[in-house]
Amino acid sequence: MSRINTNVQSLVAQRVLGLNNSNLSKSLERLSTGLRINRGKDDPAGLIASEALRAELKATNAAISNAQRADQVVNIAEGGLQEISGLLTELQGLLTASSNSAGLSQDERQANQLQIDSILQTIDRISSSTAFQGMKLLNGNMDYTVESVSSAITDYRINAAKFTGSSLGVDLVVTQSAQQGVMFLSMGGTSINLNDAGSGNFTIEVTGSKGSRELSFASGTALSTVVNTINSFTDVTGLVASVAASGSFTTGITIKAEDFGAGHFASVKVVNEAGMQGSDTNIGLYNFESDDASTVNTTITAQFDSNAAANGIRDAGQDIGATINGIAATSKGKTARINTDTLDLEVTLSTSDAQSLQTLSAFTITGGGASFQLAGSVDIAGKVSLGISDFAVRKLGTSTLGYLSELASGKSYNIVDSDGTDAQKIVGEVIAQISAARGRLGAFQKNTVGATIRSLGIAVENTAAAESSIRDADFASETAELTRSQILAQASTQVLALANSQPQAALALLG
């Protein structure tokens, strides 16, 4: 069939040539950009997934930068604490040297005090000047702000707190009272009365968490004298004695551990009874009631002449039991602490409150702290909070022992007017506080920041690989497609030429 007006074969060839040219253009575009998806029509679903992965990849890379910045901030803070730690070590040496009173002149002690003053001033200067881009790190700017602190709380430290809203209440429930190790010696009178003077002196060995001493007392020695003797060795034994003043046992001696907690105890061993027991079966060693450290258990534990007393009777203290915001706390003495991903803090209660089972509204955290965004998703789970307290000398120490500022000239524990014993206890506590702070910052760098950077790095690799598999062009496939499209385009062009020339055959019919 020969037609001139409508060349169907040419139309078919034109359509196929257009398709082949379109495929050729698409292959050239993909090879020139390196992307399989250049616009939405290339793969709508793939474009949506790819854009989501790109956004996630960008956020993850930003989180890695944040983690690296956090590491730099903590590095600077830890560097300041390291210098403070060195100064405290020097301060400890000065206290020991200055306690050698017989070998130092007053001028030398005053010179040492000047060095101590200089150290304290330097610690204050470091705490106020350590900064990152103008942000002070050790002066309390990165500590948490609190309100409504209960009178039952003597000391507290907030290491980390994450919460939504404007504030976070901290509630504490005392489930077990803190106790001291304590023994009661029923003596049967206001003085020692030995029924067998020929057996020597009444000799006991008292032992506490710090050490022990063997003490001997002659018949007729007043109980107050016995107490004074025991208390003269408190720094050696960790025990404090007193004459019983109330209750059923008004003629005896209470010996208790100086501090609270399971690590502190009171032990009494009878070395020589020397007739102290006599015929009075109520004389001997007693414990206190398990739920009331001020009431003696009326059941005798051991008589002075018993084998048990000869081997020693011991009573250990008890750590406080508590929950904080519903989390069971670890405890030491009167201090309770929790450490979760949202709240890390410790509180120390007063003696009376640590011994009472009760529910307390400890305080309310209203803000503050150093917050770092260490995940691509901006929410509470992606944030890490860190509290860096004030390391000025007036804040280093405890309310029980005292503060480092009290070692300055004219203050309570300056080495010119004191023997240095209490001052060294304060410095020892401060060294422990600084070491704990450095350890906490180090753990944050190693376990939180370091692990975050490593895990985010892996996430970046996997996310980039996923995004690449969706969006990037496969050059092996695309070059093959390009070659195919080129050949088909050339063939289509030639076919179109033949189709366009086919109607000319109709002229032969016209003669």
Total number of beta strands: 25
Name the beta content range: 15-25%
Q: Give the class-level CATH name of the largest domain.
A: Mainly Alpha
Helix content: 40-55%
CATH architecture field of the largest domain: Up-down Bundle
CATH topology of the largest domain: f41 fragment of flagellin, N-terminal domain
Estimated radius of gyration: 41 Å
Largest beta-sheet characterization: 5 strands, antiparallel
Structural class: alpha+beta
- Catalogue the unreliable spans: none
Count every helix, treating DSSP H or I runs of 4 or more residues as helices. Answer: 9
> What is the end-to-end distance?
17 Å
Principal-axes geometry comes out as: elongated
Q: Strand sequence of the main sheet, in spatial order?
A: 3-21-5-16-17
What is the typical, i.e. mean, pLDDT? 87
Overview of the structural elements:
It contains nine helices and 25 strands. 40% of the residues lie in helices and 23% in strands. The strands form eight sheets. It has a five-stranded antiparallel β-sheet, with no helix packed on it. By secondary structure, it is of the alpha+beta class. The chain has three domains: 64 residues; 206 residues, f41 fragment of flagellin, N-terminal domain (Up-down Bundle), CATH 1.20.1330; 135 residues, no CATH class.
